[in-house]
Each structure stands twice: as C-alpha cells, then as structure tokens.
Design brief:
Oligomer: single chain
CATH topology of the largest domain: Diaminopimelate Epimerase, Chain A, domain 1
CATH class of the largest domain: Alpha Beta
Structural class: alpha+beta
C-alpha cells in the first residue's frame, strides 16, 4: 500500500501519507528507544514514492529498515548526530548541499542533495531534493569564472595604457539569474561594479555573437541585474541600446575648495560611486589634479565628473576621471550621476542630454530609477592565440604563487 506502515492487525494508512504526492523525496525516521526511554537508533517509519525511487527499492521494503542502512556511510557521521540533535532540541535544520555516495551495491541516494529536517513527535521528517545537475552546473560556472578572471588579469597591462579608458567585459554562460553575466575590470586590474556604456556594448557584442536575440536582455552585474533593450541601427555595426540603471542615490556634499570654477559637488551612487562637480569648463590640468584628489572621496575610490550646463537647455557637458584608469572619453554611469546631481541642484529637469568627448547620451530620471540610452557601434573583433594566452595565464599563476610564498615567509 502506498505510504503504508505495517501494524499487527495488517496495514493502516500512515499519518505521513500526505507526502505521497510530494515532488520532493520525504523520509520519516522513528526513534527506537529502550525500556528506560534511552535512544537506541533510528528506523524508517515512512518513505514517499520519490524517496523510495531514490533509494532504489519498494516503499514497503524501506519501512522498518534501519536508517544507517537507508543512508549509508554518511549516516554514520554528521547525519546521525544532526538528526539526534533535532530530536532532542526540536530545531529545524537545512543543508543547502550535501553529497551522498549511495550503498556499496550502487543503490540508495547518490549525488548532491538539498535537505530540510524537522521534529514531529518522536520522529524526524526529512525532505530532500536531488540537486546534482545544478550543483555540477554551478561548479562549472565557478571554474569558468575563475579561468576568466585569470585570463582578464593576464590580458590587462601592468600599467594603464595611454589610450583612453580600457575596460574589459567577460561573459559567463549560463547565468543563474539573468540571460548574461558580466564582469568589468579597469586598466589597473581593479573590478568595476557597473558600466553604463560597457553593458550596452556588451549586449551588442552578445547579440552579434548569436548568444541572445535583440530586444530585452537581462544582465547580471556586480551592482545587480540590469535590463538592456537593444535594437539594430540604420547601418551595419550600429545599434541603439537603452539600459535600466536602477536608482541614483544622492550622497553627501564634497569639499571642492581649490577646484577652479567649482560651485557645488556631491557623492552619487549609481551602482558604483561618483563625485559630481558642477562649475565652469575645466582644463586638462584641473581634470588630472582634482580628479586624482577627489577620487579618494569614497573608501573604494570614486569616479569624478566635472560638469557644466549647456550647450542647450536641460543639457550638460562633462569631462570624466575614472578610478583605476584616469581621464576617459565618456562614462555611462557618470552621465547618470551628473544628471541626478544637477537635477538636485535645480539645473536640469527629468530628461537630460549629456555631452562628452566620446559622444552624447540621454538620461531619463524618474522615481522608479534612471534610464540611460544612446548608440553603440561595433569596432572590431580581437582574436587571441590560445597558446599565447595560456602562457600568459601560466606566468600569472606562477607570479601569484611566488607572491603567496613571500607573504608566508614574512615574520
């Protein structure tokens, strides 16, 4: 009988038969005690069809079986101790991932499982699900992320290049909570939480590679999941991309004494930290000197934007100093930060056009967050020789090991 527990008078319906239709495996363990009430062992009081299938046996054969036979090897360790603690304390315990090797004959639960165990009278109800496939997929993703980071570090030069604003985007597939996943590194190797222009170019590259179709694309970033809407442009290689950047959080005022022409400045967080300086147009020396100084206004370092009104109403012109890089031609998150700060000072309204040496972007401010839009253009494909790249990764790994040895040798 499905879900039945034997009794002296034949068979009776188990009080745990409510679990018969569960898609998870459910096993109920009964405490066996001596005449004095002292615990002796656990025996299986109930197993639903999924649990019996996982065990590779019939349910009626499982009921009454010693738990250490049902949960081989692992039960002699942490499971036995944990289930006994649940019985004695009434605690509910979850195991996000636990590995089982099965019985010696190849039967029984085997692989990675997610467990939930709780007390019911003198029983412990154990619910578990086979997560072997997703566990292996996550391990593969972790290995790919580790390898990609090594490749990033191997490719990034030890000194920031003379050219403006090198950032590197790396794609991990599949992403667990989005269609794509992106990691950014600045020219000095430091990780950037978010890049408004980087994510738009990143999605265009993914569409061009056939990884995702054009339209609405979700991307996992260090600042959270962002949604990009991309559509083809009027000519090959040209596209138009709009990204939901999330909220722009206005922070404290920043001291800008000594910055020529500066009127106001404040911190703004758009998934990454910015210092927005409003004033008059600035020269190269001011960008370099004040940018490097104001970068330290945030503990993690901040991007610095020097902005002034014009050339049109509700428009701003910007020069950008990015942490870990130096002056760059443009900054998408910076455009959002500048628009939000300028609106807070009453300089612009909700729709702002932001001009920089790298081009023009449109920023839409609302209570729901900030939207950044503008064109993206395919420039070219970089082909890296795998042998050369592998050698670079090996060199970086050796250097890391030598650095670890030096650190370990310090008194």
């Amino acid at each position: 009988m499905v879900g039945a527990t034997p009794s002296e008078g034949g068979q009776e319906q188990s009080p745990f038969a409510v679990f018969d239709e569960s898609l998870d495996a459910v096993t109920v363990l009964r405490a066996v005690r001596d005449g004095n009430g002292a615990f002796i062992e656990f025996r299986v009081a109930y197993a639903n069809p999924v649990a019996a299938y996982e065990a590779g046996c019939n349910m009626v054969d499982v009921v009454g079986e010693r738990a250490e036979e049902y949960y081989p090897e692992a039960f002699h360790g942490f499971l036995h101790t944990t289930f006994l603690q649940i019985l004695e304390t009434g605690r509910t315990i979850e195991f996000p991932a636990a590995e089982f090797s099965g019985k010696g004959d190849g039967s029984g639960p085997s692989g990675w499982y997610r467990f939930h165990a709780s007390k019911f009278g003198d029983h412990v109800i154990v619910t578990y699900r086979d997560i072997t496939a997703e566990h292996k997929a996550e391990q593969q993703r972790a290995a790919e992320r580790a390898e990609a980071r090594l490749l990033q570090e191997a490719l990034l030069p030890p000194v920031p290049p003379v050219s403006h604003g090198l950032e590197m985007a790396t794609l991990y597939l599949p992403a667990s909570d989005a269609a794509l996943a992106m990691e950014l590194r600045n020219a000095d190797g430091s990780v950037a939480e978010m890049s408004g222009n980087g994510i738009r170019c990143f999605v265009q590259a993914a569409v061009g590679a056939g990884l995702v179709p054009p339209g609405r694309v979700t991307v996992a970033t260090a600042a959270g999941v962002r949604t990009v809407v991309i559509r083809p442009g009027a000519e090959p290689g040209l596209a138009f991309a709009e990204v939901d950047m999330g909220p722009a959080l206005l922070g404290a005022a920043v001291d800008v004494d000594g910055v020529p022409g500066a009127r106001s400045a404040r911190l703004v967080d758009v998934g990454n930290p910015h210092v927005v300086v409003l004033g008059a147009p600035v020269d190269d020396a001011t960008v370099a000197d004040a940018g490097a100084r104001l970068e330290t206004s945030h503990p993690d370092g901040a991007n610095v934007e020097f902005a002034w009104p014009g050339p049109d109403p509700d428009s701003l012109t910007v020069r950008v100093w990015e942490r870990g890089v130096g002056e760059t031609l443009a900054c998408g998150t910076g455009a959002c930060a500048v628009a939000a700060a300028a609106r807070s000072w009453g300089v612009v309204a909700n729709h702002v056009r932001v001009h920089s040496d790298g081009g023009t972007l449109d920023v839409e401010l609302s209570d729901g967050g900030v939207r950044l839009s503008g064109p993206t253009r395919f420039v070219g494909t970089v082909v890296v020789d795998e042998a050369v790249l592998g050698a670079m990764v090996d060199e970086r790994q050796v250097a890391d090991l030598e650095q670890d040895d030096q650190m370990a040798a310090r008194p």
